[in-house]
Amino acid sequence: MFLFYTAFSVACWPGSYIAKSSTRYNHGLVQQRQQRHKPKKPAKPADLRGEPIGPSSVKQPSETPNNEVAYRPVFLLVWSSAKFKAHWALFIADAADKTFKSGKYIHVEGNPVDGFTFQIVRGWDINKSRRRPQSPIEIGWVRADLIVDVPSNGQLVKESVPRDQLEAMLAAVPAPARSFNKVTEGDGSGGKRKKPELSDCQWWTTRCVANLVESGILVPPQRGLNKHKDPRDTVAQAPRH
């Protein structure tokens, strides 16, 4: 009965209405198919600028002389002595250490009698050092891509093999040879002899800083007490005893 009534009703409706309904129905199907097969907009790529790919890519500090280049600070360590000249070393903190207390220091070890040798001390922590230096003096900034933080697995490692470009530049500066109680030929006035300039760790560090500044590798800090100050002047005013 229901089927008969439906068929009869449809057959009795005007043809124009049936045609319009059919057209609307077909148009709706086309729209659904178009939306179904419409290509989706590609998702925006993730912003990876904040994800470091290595220690040298960490921007520390955030304020740099050039916004497109990351820099890392270089410090001067001074071990004071009541009887002898202070010992100097260049210190580069690990990129992950925001307190600038742990990292590596580079120096020459020895004495004027026997001479000095180039040395890199990795895995050093100022808070764990038996003989603590004065507070590190920030002397300048170096491009981060010249520095590599070599893992030491929590151990204090001493070696003379450079592992990054900055270490190689410092290793290229000859360590002082024996100079104590040695004399050089005089200038010819009366045949007198004179003692040469005493070369030690302070002399070597001063030469290293001068070379880095003159080559444009070491630039003045952009913050702190030595802001915009020539690193050579900062080293010249550092404690010597």
TrEMBL record:
Compositional bias per record (Basic residues), positions renumbered to this chain: 34-43
Region (Disordered): 28-65, 221-241
Top-level taxon: Eukaryota
Cross-referenced InterPro entries: DUF6540
Protein name in the entry: Uncharacterized protein
Species annotation: Zymoseptoria tritici (strain ST99CH_3D7)
